[in-house]
Amino acid sequence: MEDNEDYLLKVSNLSVKLQNQTILDNVSFKLRRGTALAVLGPNGAGKTMLFRALLNLVPYTGKIEWAEKAKIGYVPQNVAVDDIPISVKEFLSFKNHANLESSLSYVKLNNKNVEGKTLGVLSGGEFRRVLIAWALADNPDVLLFDEPTSGVDHGSEEPILVMLNGLKKKKGITLILITHDVHIVREYSDYLLALNRCVTFFGDSKKIMDPSIQNMIYGETVCVGAPDEEK
Amino acid sequence: MTEALFLSLLTGIFVGFSAGYLGSLMVLEKMSLVGDALSHVALPGLALGFLFNFPPFLGAFAFLFVSAVIIWHLGRVTKLSFETIVGAMFTFALAIGIFIIPNVDLLEALFGDITTVTILDAAIAVIVSVVAVYLTKIIYKKLVLSMISEELATSKGINVGRINLLYLVLVSLVVAVGIKIVGTLLVGFLVVVPAAAAKNVSADLFKYEVLSAFFGVISSCSGILFSSYLNLPTGPLVVFSGFIVFLATVLVKWKTK
After folding, report:
1. Which residues of A touch B145 (CB under 8 A)?
2. Contact A83 B28 (CB under 8 A)
3. In what order do the strands lie in the sheet with A21-32?
4. Which residues in chain A have their CB less than 8 angstroms from residue B148's CB?
5. Taking CB atoms and an 8 Å cut-off, how many pairs form between chains A and B?
6. How far apart are alpha carbons A47 and B133 in whole angstroms?
7. How many other CB atoms are found less than 10 A from the CB of residue B181?
């Protein structure tokens, strides 16, 4: 029997149309608390639009039901800081939260050297950590992360992913990650939502290594109906 | 110090400060040309003021205000950049202004005349500047966050469209009072160049805000003082002073690279 209390998010028949173009078509899925969902799909598949809909930033049809009082943290992929003289401390001060120190400590950035640096000169890895600290300052129940390792050099990717995994395991934060990286899907997520405007696969992320599932994701687009996660 | 010079300097300090401060956001938004071109939109308003004997500032502000709202609305509807829309509007407004403005007042409208500033002009400049800086201070961080990521700002509950409109209206106010000092052709300078100079030497937002306003004050005051002692037009001297500051910051940046 389904336990409704256990779900943090239920999306039913979500569609987004912008300028007469269908960006998302009839997307449905459910997500339990404390799990990690990877959202995979080609460019233009509607992954970022899904986030925008989940954040209520675009008009949509269908239903998005967050659990009551769910707090959502968001880490965008595209952030324009190269041309803005703003220090890390100033950026984080936009939040003005008492638990900013602990957030910085969690992402291992609680030193004065980094806080005084201009945001635009940080390395890709440092910058992602700052964004995570920003999102964590609100004590979110769920973290929406658009391309966690985008712009991060190879050696810094794994520590960030381990840190995200720790958020799920130690703090019970639910993760929704947009990614192109099969390694992230396999190692750091519990569920996989493959999108190509509609849902082409939803289920156990470990199945991504199954050739028939890979064909569903990367082959000719065949939309699947509302998923039954329990099966 | 004569009363005229005192009033000129008082106006210069407040307008220079507010133009530099508000301009710092314009430079960050890469809307420098908007600040410049927007000022030309004021010309028909000034012309109507001269023709029908009401304060030209009011006419300038009315035209700037309406233009700011139109630019903001067209930007949202068409998704064209502010620069493109302003580019389409300002030459049209300039043409109308030059067509209807009396010849005798054209030079003052184009290049300003701080020597004719009255107590009322100075009072308006001070009040407008204080209000514009105060309101901009309230929305400053929100605007910067929306420049960094509109999604991040919106997800924090910031109404990006509304604060952009408020900002454009405040810029219109400051440009309208700045016209008295340097005229419609040069007032864009006060909005753009002090901020550009500050950006050359700033690593954080606080320093950038403060230096933008400070360079605005330095540019306008030194221009007014040189104008008074050399008996030359104020507008161009404000521009020369500000440009020297800008060059100095380029040198500093070049040396510290």
Report:
1. 94
2. yes
3. A21-32, A7-18, A61-66
4. 79-81, 84, 86, 91
5. 53
6. 40
7. 30
Q: How far is B148 from chain A (nearest CA, A)?
A: 5
For residues A87 and A115, the answer to whether their CB atoms sit within 8 Å is yes
Question: With the CA atoms of B176, B178, B182 and B188 taken in that order, what torsion angle do they form, in degrees rounded to the nearest 10?
Answer: -80
Nearest to B144 among A79, A86, A118 (CB): A86
The encoded tokens of residue B110 equal 């184009």
pTM: 0.82
Closest by CA position to B4, among listed B117, B111, B108: B117
Out of B152, B199, B202, the one facing A76 most closely (by C-beta) is B152
ipTM of the complex as predicted: 0.78
DSSP character for A208?
G
Nearest CA in chain A to B200: A85
Please report how the helices B3-28 and B119-148 are oriented relative to each other, as an axis angle in degrees rounded to 10: 10
Using the beta-carbon criterion (under 8 Å), do B148 and A57 form an inter-chain contact? no
Asked whether the beta carbons of residue B205 and residue A52 sit closer than 8 angstroms, the reply is no
Query: Within its chain, how far is the Cα of A222 from the centroid?
Result: 24
CA torsion sign for A175, A181, A184, A186 is: positive
User: Residues B119-149: pLDDT tens digits?
Assistant: 988 898 899 999 999 999 999 999 999 888 8
Contacts of B204 in chain A (CB under 8 A): 85-87, 90, 116, 118
CA distances to A20, A222, B49, B196 from A219, rounded to whole Å, are 26, 8, 69, 51
Q: Tens digit of pLDDT for each residue in A123-171? A: 888 888 888 888 888 888 999 988 887 777 777 778 888 888 888 888 8
A-contacting residues in B 178-237 (Cβ below 8 Å): 199, 202-208
Per-residue pLDDT of B90-113, as tens digits, reads 778 878 887 887 776 776 777 777
- How does strand A174-179 pair with strand A142-146? parallel
The CA-based angle B47-B53-B58, given to 5 degrees, is 65
CB B173 within 8 A of CB B61: yes
